[in-house]
Structure formats: C-alpha cells, structure tokens
Amino acid sequence: MSAVDALMWRGDTDRRLRATICMIEIYDCVPDWDRLLAAHEWGSRMAPRFRQRVIDSPFGTGTPSWAVDPDFDLHYHVRRMRLAGDGSMRELFTTCEQLAMTALDQGRPPWEGTLIEGLPDGRAAYFLKAHHALTDGLGAILGLAQLHSTSRDPIPGKPQPPDPEPRNVSSLDVLGRQVVEEVQRLPHRVDTAWHGVRALARPRRAVSEVLRYGRSVPRVAGLVSPPGSPLLLHRSLSWRFSAFEVPFDDLKAAGTAARASVNDAYLAGLIGGFRFYHEKMGTPVEAIPVAIPISVRRPEDPAGGNRIAVGRMAGPVGIEDPFERVLTIREQVRAARTEPAVDIFNTLGSVLAWLPGQVLAQFSGATTQNDLQASNVPGIPWDTFVAGAKVERMFPFGPLPGCAVMATMITHNGVACLGLNQDAASITEPELFAECLVEGFDEVLALAADTGAGGRAGTLRRVI
Fold first, then answer.
1. What is the Cα–Cα distance from 458 to 441, expressed in whole angstroms?
2. How far is CA 455 from CA 137, 261, 323, 438, in A?
3. Beta-carbon contacts of residue 147 (< 8 Å; ≥ 6 apart)
4. CB neighbourhood size of 452 (10 A)
5. Active-site option among 40, 131, 132, 148
6. How does pLDDT run across 270-316, given as a tens digit for each residue?
7. Distance CA 130, CA 309 (A)
8. Is 188 a catalytic residue?
9. How far apart are CA 401 and CA 403, in angstroms?
10. What does the alpha-carbon distance between residue 113 and residue 257 come to, in Å, rounded to a whole number?
C-alpha cells in the first residue's frame, strides 16, 4: 500500500474521517442477475485489487500490505435488494445514504456492490461503495469500466485472465517488508542529504528554494486557509446525498466564455451556491476554505491506489459577479497546482504512516477542516451497458473527511452529473441549499450567452 493510501486507511480510526467513496448508477431496466455476477467475477480478475484485502503490521503502524484474499467470496460483495416504499428517487438516495454510512469489513476486500430494484417503470439502480484506499476517483472509474460494455448483448472473445493467486500474508510478514523498505530508502535519503550539502556551494539559491518551499508548506497543509464559515461550523457522522445534472457542453461553454476551464466554471457554480445560501441564511462571508484534488496519475500507473495531491483555495464566496468569480478561481487553481510543496503528503507519507492511528486521525482532522472539497473526474463519453441494462446516469459521492460538503462531478455520455455529500450538522437547510446551488450554477451558465460566445444559457437540474 502506498503511503497516501495508508493515511486514508488509518483515518478510519476516527469515524468522522471514514474514507468511503460511492457511486450510484441508474439503469433503464433490471440487469440480468447472473450476467451481473459474471461481470463482477470477470472484472475482479481484470482488476485484481478488488480481490485483495489489507494486512496490517502487529503495531498498526507503517504502510500495510495488499494481498489476494484466500477467502474471497463474491456472494458477500455483490448483493441485491428491492425498495420497500414508493420507489422514488428520494427513497433510493436515502437507502444509499444508509448503505454508505455502514462501515466496510476491514477483514475483506474493502468494497460492496448492491443492485437495487423497485424503481418506477421497471428501472433499477446499482450502488457501489469502496474504501478510498482501494482507489482514487479516476481509478474507480477505470475499475467500474470493467463492468460496463458497449453493447446490451454479451460480447464474445473477451480476455480471460486467470484467478489471481491467493496469498497468506501475516502481520509479521508486513513488518518484515516494512523494515526492508526502510533499509532500501537509506541510500535515497543519503543521496538527498548529499545534494543538500552540494547545494551549499550556491547558498543564495539554496536558501531561496528552501524559503520558497517552507512558505508553501503551510498553504498546502491548510494551516493558512481562511476561517471556516460559522454557518457550517458543526460536524457529525451523518451523510446526506443530493444529485444534479447539466449538459456538459453548456458548462464547457460557460468556462470558454470566461476564458477558463470547465473545472473553473464548475467550482464557480458551487461557490456561487454557497454565496446564495449564506446570504439567505443571513450570514454572509467573504471566503471559505476549499480543497481540490490534483491528479498525479500517469498512464502507466495501475488502476488501484491513489495518485493525488491536495490543492488549497480561499473560495471567493464574497464575489457577486460570476465572470469575476470564475477568473479569480482560475488563478487560484493555477496557483494551487504550482505550489512547490503540493506533493508534500506523498513526500512525507512514508514518515506519517508510522504514526499510531489515533495520532494520525487527529493530524488528518486538523488538515481537512474545509467547508468544501470538490473534484471533477472524467467519465465515460459513450453509451454503456451493464448485464443488458443501459446506464442512464452515474452519480459519484466522496467521503466527508472533516469537511461540510464534498462535491464530485463526473461526465457520462454528454451529461455532467454532480453528486454532493453533505454533513447533516453543517447543512441544516438542505432544501434551501439545493435551490441555492441551482442559482449559483445558473448564473455561471448564463455567461455563455451574456458574453456573446455563441452559447446558450443552460440550467442545472436537480435530480434529488
């Protein structure tokens, strides 16, 4: 397990920092159950990480190991259920909230998939939850793609990898591996120290680089972020989901109109929603602490694990003009991506992983107290099917590691799908907050028409 994955895994010591990522897919019909099981069996051979469990050291410190579970049982991981009430989207999302808040079994591969039947017009849903240590957002999409097909009918001739070989790995084996890795790191640390000594030959440059990095560390660690909003002060163990959608081309046109990216427009819509919410609640603020993931995943990286760094922003809630807000966010995102210490948690992860779980949880909590965390994950840009059912929508939901709201956007076949996970103690008026998000996005989407960029003013549609 990488050091960053280990930090996420140990964060579960504090239930408020539980790192469960989720996905809700909506199908046009109920998929064939036997084919769905077969797809999971095949997908877990294509992406063996989904057959691996976590083995920790005897002391619960250092980086744990992944090992193929000799007792892997698909019967445990893949379930089916039927909604008992009216089959509404609200009932579906309430059920998924409850499933998401239930802890994963740390003695098994940390994921579960549930087929949910009983939606109107013969439709169905699929709920996937997994520990964030298993994979990041992009890795989850790559893994989920193993279940998807470009055809409603079975496609013959797919590669058939063998079952991964089970391994009986003990906690002492993990400890031995950790010791060997620490010994192997010594030459690198000596080399780093030697480069530091050589840098003294150019003291002015060396001091400049050290000071530049040192000034960057508090910003990346969130130690100099704006204070959190008093309106969003409280945290709890309760998750609440909401979902929205907007044509991706409309959101992209808004970004283009402001000479910014679609991600900048997305963040501006979110922060605009926070502005309306604070104003209507009678507690206006100028800025809120915002965190964004910065992907460092390379094409050659495996699908599993996390390849992310953290960027920090002072979300400009006080800026009323949506055009100015987009441009301000654009510059903040650029600055966050170029911070010298942006990858500090990957750099120091091997050291931090040796902290006991309780200490690490306190450290993690101190650096994740954001009012908003927002990510944007590329999706699947064509029609996809699962066991004979067409995927109509997919809504992603990240965890709440000490933040008030976790927003995630994924694009599926031309539709930008937004999933928001909200702390019920932070967002005390969820209906009002949803309305404010629609207002915040709509004023950003209107930029495409207002600036004469040839676009039209789209609108954000609330799903639930």
1. 9
2. 30, 15, 15, 19
3. 36, 39, 40, 43, 386
4. 8
5. 132
6. 999 999 999 999 999 999 999 998 876 566 555 555 667 788 899 99
7. 20
8. no
9. 6
10. 40
